[in-house]
Amino acid sequence: xxxxxxxxxxxxxxxxxxxxxxxxxxxxxxxxxxxxxxxxxxxxxxxxxxxxxxxxxxxxxxxxxxxxxxxxxxxxxxxxxxxxxxxxxxxxxxxxxxxxxxxxxxxxxxxxxxxxxxxxxxxxxxxxxxxxxxxxxxxxxxxxxxxxxxxxxxxxxxxxxxxxxxxxxxxxxxxxxxxxxxxxxxxxxxxxxxxxxxxxxxxxxxxxxxxxxxxxxxxxxxxxxxxxxxxxxxxxxxxxxxxxxxxxxxxxxxxxxxxxxxxxxxxxxxxxxxxxxxxxxxxxxxxxxxxxxxxxxxxxxxxxxxxxxxxxxxxxxxxxxxxxxxxxxxxxxxxxxxxxxxxxxxxxxxxxxxxxxxxxxxxxxxxxxxxxxxxxxxxxxxxxxxxx
Length: 388
What we know:
By secondary structure, this protein is α/β, with parallel strands linked by helices. It has 14 helices and 14 strands.
């Protein structure tokens, strides 16, 4: 058995697919310390620069003083703190839904929603570039798993029209984590109305960044789509919100169904209450600090303009996720490694996370970056692309 595992690992190494953890010695920021060396980092989902914000640090300390460290039990036994409940109410109000439910992670939230809302006699329809957690959730549900080409709503509609499933659930990223593009949310909701389906929208990379006051992808112009009762909205809290966890917002009957049936909610210890206490402050910062989103928008324009002449092309994205398409996994790893040697961290994303032949650098921009940081990355990439 062990020789077989070793051979698999050797092959993975040869194909440039081996993943290696790096130990970060500093707080998350635009500049981090890894292994005793300082780096300029474009590798974090801390889009608003809140992960090390003094107000959140203070709020965590206050929460620990008030609620202790651990929750001690699952939400349905004795672990549902007043801090958890206050955050759920605040998250629902912030996103415009009647109710919200706190989960430990986005992965657990997606698993809980899909398996609670779909089963053997049902069908789940999924964009082919959805996050792995949505795909895994669909397979765990034992519903018929129907995938459609990325953003191809013509094919999705044909498959909706052909199904005889009892219940239909469309699942989609709002902002696709490795592409940076945005799902056509109003059109997805229209299909739900036409074919009596529900929509689970994973807004892990849109919450805090997109929409009015950072309220998420459902609040993008021309008109908010949040009012459809068919939408089940999931947002994570360890990216733009700067803390940890996730929540699901939906109609009361959906939330109550999750409380009663979502196994990833029922059978796990609740998150530390101090984190929910800090998240109340995070919501305030997200709503009031419009300058952070304005600065992000400036960074995106600067990067796009600066990389236009490269042989590698940025994929179409107006979000802080800016994927630079390289092609072969070994080439993407080489570029990432050379940048690292120059003190710049940009992760190489390879199969199976992305399709074969589409390995890329995933450049993540943050409001914590400065224009000179963006310029340094642009200059380094141009030097790498220029034949010596």
